[in-house]
C-alpha cells in the first residue's frame, strides 16, 4: 500500500511524548465532565470540586483524542492541510480538549486561557447553563459538523473536499453512527471524488464496540469482516487494534503515515496523468478514470479506554457503561470520588502541566502551528468565501408578452444560469448542483453543456454526460445530495440541491439540523458567514399527477416554517423571471436555508425581469393587471391571494371568471412570492409592516387564498395580522392519485371554480351575474367529475381544462 | 452452498413454458403503458389504440417479471409461503401483470376479468385518471410496499418475517434504490433475524445498470465487487447475469432452488438445535447464536430487456433510455408506432392468450394456487390480525394523590405494560418494541425483564440483556426501527417505535408515506385493517436541556398535523395515567399513525386512572381543581390552556400564581391531550362540536396557551373556531442550548412567569394584586437571568425553580 511513511517509524521518545499528549487530552476530558474546581488537581479531590450535574460522554473521548494527537503528528511531519470531522460528536469535551491543547481555543475564546485560570474555566463551562454543550458543534473551532444527530459525518467530509484539491478531511466514524442509513450510504464516496481536482477523505472507523446501552453491529464483527465491508465499498482499509497504548501508538502512526503516502501517491499519479479532458460541451472527451482505492483506517480500541475498569462490580472500560459518565453520584459517594481521583491522577497531570497550568513545552511542541492546527483550519471556520459572479439575468429572462400568454418550462432558464455558473468558475471552481438523478427531469439539463455527471466507474457507450470530470453530483439519495452540499457550503463554496418536492422530506431532518447550525454559528463573530443552503423543490405536489399520491407532499414547507426566521427563507416564484430573481438572491445570500418551490413543467409567464425583481424585492404585490380596481381607492369586494405557480394560475383564472361574469364586483389579486412577508415582523424579519400588509390585504376585507402548501399550515403565517379569520385558504389537502393536473386542483378544492365559488360566497353582496357564475362553476365541476369518470372508458384530451389567460 | 435444488434443473419444456409466461407478463406490461384498445393485438396497431398520455416505467419491468415468474416456479415446487416485495415499485405495471396472470387480480377486481374484456380494462386503467398508478402500492394485491419513495423495501421485508417463521420475503432491490441511505443500512438484517423464530428474507439485488438518466453505482461495479459487498454484510450471494434468456432462466432457477434449500437448511439446523433459551428474566441464559449467512441473489440483466434495442439511432435496451417509456409520441409517429407493434408482436401474444383473451392453460398452470399465489398472500393483504390482549391498566397506574404532589418517570410504567405484552404473547408472538438504542434511556427498561435486545453476533461478558433470542429491536437507525415496525404492522402484528423526539424527524418522510399508504388502503374493502403505527416521542425538546440545541425539535408534530385526519392522531398525555390510556387506545386501534408525545423524566402526576381514561376519551377537559371558577356560570377572566407535560406543569403553576396573587380574577385551566380535538370536525374526526369547544374555551374569552410544539404551528389547529386571534400561544420557538430545564421554558417564553404575565395582560380589567404579581414575575425572571449568568461561576442547585403544586 503506497510508499513508506513520510518520516519512518516513531522513536521511543516520540512515542512517550505523544502518549503524554494523549494523556493530557484525556485528563482535560475527564476534568470537563466532572470538575467545577481544582481542575489541575493540585489538592486532594473533594465533593465541592464536583459539578452538581454530571453530563457528557466519556466513552468515545479517548479514541477521538488518540486520533487527533496522531493527526497532529502527521500534520507536523507533512504540513498537510487536514480538516477534522468528529462523527461521534457527542465526544465534544475531548475535541475541545484537543483544540485547547493546540492553542486555538484560547485564541478564539481568550477567557479560556492557556493557564490555570483558563483550565478552570474550560472545566467549569462544560455542560453548564450558558456554557459549552456536550456535542461538537458551531462553537467548536475547526468543526463543520454537529455531532448531535448522527449519520452525516462522512458526507460532510466528502462535500468539504470537492474542488478542494489540497485538503484532507479526516473523518472519524463511530460504530454507532455507522448503523445509520445516511452513513451507510456515504461509503460510496470514492466513486464521486476525482483525485485530480478533489481532495481526499480519510475515514477512520472507530470501533469501540458499544452504544448507549448495547453493542454495535460493526463492533461485534471480526476485523476481516469489517475490512471486507470497507474494501467492498471501494476503500483500502487497514485495521489498528489493541488495548496496549504503546502498540496502538506505533500501529496507528504507521497506518496514518501509510495512508497519507498513499493519498499523495494517488493524487500525484492522477494529477501527473491530467484529467484527460479539456474540452467542453459535445466536443468534450469523456474521462473514464475509475475510482482510486483510497486508504481507510479501522481503529478498534476499548470504549472509555484509560477510564475505570470496573465500578460497583460491573465492568466499565470496554463496555457500554463507559458511554456517558462512568462514575455517577461522585459528589455524594466517597468511594466514587476516590475512584475519580485515582483515575485522574493516573494521567499524572503534574507531568503534563506546569504549576501555572500551562502544557509543558515539549508537549505543546507536538501540535502543528498556525493555520495548520485542525482547530484553526480556515476551511472550517468560515474563511471569507469567494462570491459567485452571477451573470446578468437578462440573458435567461423570458419575455412574457401579455401576462399569461407565453408558456415556458419554468426551471429551464435556471439550468442555463447554472450552466454559466459552472463555466464562469472554471478558474476557481466553487459551484455545484446536487440532485438525485433528476437534473434532466427537473429541466436543468443545460448544465450538461458545461459539465457532466460525476462518476468514477467504468463508462458505457450509451452514457449521456457521465465522466470522472463531471461536477454535477447525481446520486439516488437525498441524504447524500444534501449532505455533500452542506460540506461544500460549510467550507465556503456555493450550490443548489434540487429535489422532487415530496422526497425533500427524506432529508428534512438534515435541513432542521443545518438551520440550527446556522442559527448558532451566526452568533459567533469568529465564524465567517457561509453561503446559504439552497433547496429547489421541483416536481411539486400539483404536478405529480402522473406519479401519484406518494409523490405529492409539500411537507418541507411546514418543517421550514417552524424554524428560526433568522435563518430561513421560503420563496414561491410564480414564473421563470421571479425564479431567476429568487435564485440570484439565494446564491448571493449567506447563512440561510433558502427554500425555493417551483414546478418544472411548462407554465404561463407573467412578469418581465424588471417586474420580477421588484416583486421579489417586495415579497408580495398587488397584480393590478389581473384585477379590476383600476386605481379605485375603495376596498375591493374580494381579494384573491396566491402563492406558488399553480395556485397563481388558478387564482388568476378565478379572477378572470369573476370579472367576466360579475363585472360589477371589484377583484384584487395579490401574489405572494415570499411566504415570510405574511407573519408579523417579530416572527420573521421579512414580515411586512402593518401599513404594507393592510395596503395589500386591507384590515377587514375577505381574502380567498390559493396556497401551494398544506392548506391549514397557512394559518400559522397569519396569526397576529388583523382579523385572520377572513382568510379562506385552499391548498394541498392530502388528496391525490394518478390523474390529470387539473383534477389535482379539483381534488384539493383549489381549482379556479372552487376559488371563484368561495369568492362569490365571501362578497359583501349578491352581484349581478353571481348566481350565473356559481351555476357555471358547479356545472363545470360536475362536467369535470363526469369527464374523469368517462375518461376511463373514452379518453378525451387531458389538457382540455387548460387555463385561459385573464383578459383574453 | 446448501443442498441441491428442490426439484433439480429445469427441463427444456419447462424452460420454454416459463419463458412464455415471462413473455406474457412483459406483453401485458407494454400493453398497460401504451394501449387503450386492441390489447390483444388482434388487429394491426393504429394510432387510436394508443393512450394520449404515455406514462409508466418499462425499464425495471422485465426484471421484476422474470423474478416473479421464477418465484412462482419455486412456490409451486415447494409450497413455500412467499411475500413479494418490489423495491423498484415504479415497475407497477409488471407486478400488476403478474398478479393478473396468476388470477388474483381478477378475484380482487372482478371487472378486470381473465378474458379479453378484462385485458382491455387492465390496459386502459393503467396511468389513467381514476385508474391505476405507475407504482406498486396499496391497490396492488400482495403488496405491503409502496414503490414511490425508494429505500424501504428491505426493511419492510425484514419486519414482515419477524416472528413469522414460515414466511419467506423475497425482496427485489433495484440498483437505484440501493444508493439510498435507508436501503444501505438495511443490509444488516442477518444480525437481527433469528432463524428459530423468524422467517427468511431473500434479497434479489437487481442490477440493470441505470436510473432515470444515469448509471447506478452498483450497476457499474464488477460482479466480484458487488458479491463482496453483500458478503461483507453477512449474506452469501450468488450472481446470475446475462442477456440470453435461456441461460438466465436456467441460472436463476438454479439460484433460487439453491437459495431456498439453504434457507430451509439454516432453519432446520437452527430449529433442531432449539433456541437454547427458555427462561425469563435474570434466570435466562443468553443465546449467543450468531447470524446465519442467508442466501442472496444478484441478478444482472439489461434494463428494459426484450424492449427496443435502439430508437432514433440511440441505444435503448440496456441503457437509462429504457427507464420509462422507450418509444415516445407513438400516437403521432408512424415509425414509433411500427416499432411498438413489432416489439409487442415479438412476444407472440397469439401463443400466450387464446381468442377470448385467456392465458393458455399450460401457462396458467405455472402459477401457484390459492393463498400461495404471491398476489393472494394473506400476510400482505391484511388478513385479520390477532388483537393484543392488553392487561388491565390498573396494575401500572400511578396514584397521584393530590394533583401534582407525586412525581414519576412518566414512561416507566409504560415499559412495564410493554414487558407484559411481551410475556403475554409468548404463545403467539405479535408485539415488539423498536427503539434506537434508547430503551433504557427512555425508561422503558422493564421490557428487559421479559426479553433481551436482539443481536445475532458474538456476545461479551459485560453485555446487558443482549441475545439472539431477544425481541427488543435496538439499532441506531430511526429508519430501520420504523421500517422494520412498518413491515411488522403491515403483516398484522403490533408494536411501538420509541424515539428521541428530535430524531423522529430522521424518518419523518417514512411517516408521511405510511400515512399515505393507510389513507389509500382504508378505501380498499379487500384489505383488512392493520394495527396502527405507534410512535412514542420521548426525550422531548423541553427536557433535552442537557443534550442541547440539536436534540430539541418537536417538528414531527407539524409533519403529522398536515396529513389526513382520517389516519392521524396526536396525543400529548400530561402524565402517566393518561399516557397509559393513550397507549392502550393506540395499541387497539387500526390504520392510524398515533403520535404520542411525552417526556421520560420524573414529572408531577395529576389524574387517577379513571380520570385519565375520561380525559383521554374527551380529548380536552376543564381541570376544575386547577382553577377557581367553583362552578360559576360566568365566563372566567382568563383561560389557561395547555397541551403536553411540561406545558401543563407551567400552566398549572401560572394558574396557581394567579390565584394566589390575584384572587379576584377567575381562572380556568383546560388541558388538551388530543391535539386534534381543536380543529373543526370537517378537518379531523376528533374535532369537538361547536358546543363542546365553546364550553371549554368560550366564544370570546382570552386564552393563553402553553403548547408542546412549535408555537406558531398551533394556530393552524384553530382556524374555523370562533375568534381565533384570542388564543395567545407560547411553545417551542427554536431557542435552546445546554442549560437547565427551567431555562428552556424561559428561553422559549413559556415559563409560568411568562404565562402569568401574558394572562394578566389579557384580563378584562386590572385586578387587585395584578401589578404586584407582574412585578413578582418580572423580578423572578430577572433573578433567573442573573442565576443563569451566575451559574457559570457559582453553581447553585439546578432545580431551584421546581414547580409548587397549586393549592399547596
Automatic annotation (TrEMBL), chains A, B:
Record-linked Gene3D superfamilies: 3.40.50.920, 3.40.50.970
SUPFAM superfamilies to which the protein is assigned, alphabetical: Thiamin diphosphate-binding fold (THDP-binding) (SSF52518)
Lyase found in the keyword field: yes
GO biological process, one term: carbohydrate metabolic process
GO molecular function, one term: aldehyde-lyase activity
InterPro entries linked: THDP-binding (IPR029061), Transketo_C/PFOR_II (IPR009014), Xul5P/Fru6P_PKetolase (IPR005593), Xul5P/Fru6P_PKetolase_C (IPR018969), Xul5P/Fru6P_PKetolase_CS (IPR019790), Xul5P/Fru6P_PKetolase_N (IPR018970), Xul5P/Fru6P_PKetolase_ThDP_BS (IPR019789)
Cofactor(s) essential for the protein: thiamine diphosphate
Segments of skewed composition (Low complexity): 280-289
Residues of the Xylulose 5-phosphate/Fructose 6-phosphate phosphoketolase C-terminal domain: 600-803
Residues making up the signal peptide according to the UniProt record: none
Keyword list, A-Z: Lyase, Thiamine pyrophosphate
Domain of life: Bacteria
Residue ranges constituting the Xylulose 5-phosphate/Fructose 6-phosphate phosphoketolase N-terminal domain according to the UniProt record: 10-382
Record region (Disordered): 270-289
Family that this chain belongs to: Belongs to the XFP family.
Protein name: Xylulose-5-phosphate/fructose-6-phosphate phosphoketolase
Species, as recorded: Arthrobacter globiformis (strain ATCC 8010 / DSM 20124 / JCM 1332 / NBRC 12137 / NCIMB 8907 / NRRL B-2979 / 168)
